[in-house]
Amino acid sequence: MKKKLVVLTGAGISAESGLKTFRDADGLWEGYNVMDVATPEAWHRNPELVQRFYNERRKQVLTAQPNEAHFALAQLENQFDVAIVTQNIDDLHERAGSTNVIHLHGVITLAQSSKRAALVYPIKGDEIKMGELCELGSQLRPHVVWFGEAVPMIEKAAVICAQADCFILIGTSLAVYPAAGLIDYVPHATPKYIIDPKIPPVAGLSNVVKIEKSATEGMKELFTSLV
After folding, report:
1. What does the H/E/C string look like for 129-158?
2. pLDDT at residue 21 tops 70
């Protein structure tokens, strides 16, 4: 039976594919205040602006390509039972070949009902247009978890982290909750690898190996030691 390898990824792994990290140090995302484009209140206040913002982000995602770190994680499925929990809303893990990906914050390449979040739909092309409705007659919006909304996959992710025989953290500052708390569910004895140019504070965790490199370089180093 294959050992269970659980990976938690953040914006750092997608940054090397040319996608901007969700929030820069100044609190802006692509020049916008996140509160103006990533909250339910922003959607109610100006749905056209929010829709346009995510349509542009979606086009960036669709033109981006998976990088070596994404491909390395997909290749680990040959040796391990791999589960990837990602904070990212892109589909680069899937496009690299990973088959078990849990998206904590949704997937930008899908649409959802603005009335019932569980109603999710494929998008024709790269845009959701104003006037496109779900089966309940409400406007379609991006399938993205905004600030102030529940994170429906968090409990499933916590269960998966608790089952880890090996745990890898890549490209996340552990600043966004509840995702940041997932590392606390990883068993005490499980080896934990952290890949990031700036290792986040992880005081109190045991069996931690810190690889202070970018996602692609760090995964290259880790891959050779794991397989």
Report:
1. CCCCECCCCCEEEEEECCCCCCCCCHHHHH
2. no
